[in-house]
Amino acid sequence: EAEVAQSPRYKITEKSQAVAFWCDPISGHATLYWYRQILGQGPELLVQFQDESVVDDSQLPKDRFSAERLKGVDSTLKIQPAELGDSAMYLCASSLGAGAPHEQYFGPGTRLTVT
Amino acid sequence: GQNIDQPTEMTATEGAIVQINCTYQTSGFNGLFWYQQHAGEAPTFLSYNVLDGLEEKGRFSSFLSRSKGYSYLLLKELQMKDSASYLCAVPPGGSYIPTFGRGTSLIVHP
User: Fold this and answer.
1) Does the CB of A44 have a partner CB in chain B at under 8 Å?
2) How close is the nearest chain B Cα to the Cα of A11, in Å?
3) Best exposed site among A43, B17, B42, B85 by fewest CB in 10 Å?
């Protein structure tokens, strides 16, 4: 069964350092999402891509976060510099399309700890 | 904007039935999702309701009332493996991307 891949699974970094996360969506899924989930809360959307284009990044803290999906397949989310409050689970999800509500398939996530 | 409200935590006994409620307010309605998330793992899709009524899928059923802004997830014949967080998610008006509630942590005990 096809799955969304993410790496690394765990990342510990010091504040002010740069960190990057990678996601490979299910083949054929045009839409890719990055979420942040703080312990005890639901996932919060950071950015949505349709193919290689950003559809919604209104909740992305653009002073320190950036995301790209250059060829419309895999994607990278970067934080520079990392802050203590960035400690969270970063989830990547993909879906077939964006023109209607679609089931989202989530990857295993990257758990980030900033010290 | 929108508000999604669901209980923080529930406990139930193995073999029993539990109902997890979700109320929402949204300027438009494009359906309601339920996801299951085990501790430390990614959410997995359970159901999607866009019309009023009950939809059954094995031991899990989901109900929607659009006029009341209300949904519930019904879990029957509870098993220990059902211990997880259950996330209610609603796309805000004009969007198809669900906004997630805080989730309900369900603890199933013997």
Assistant:
1) yes
2) 14
3) B17
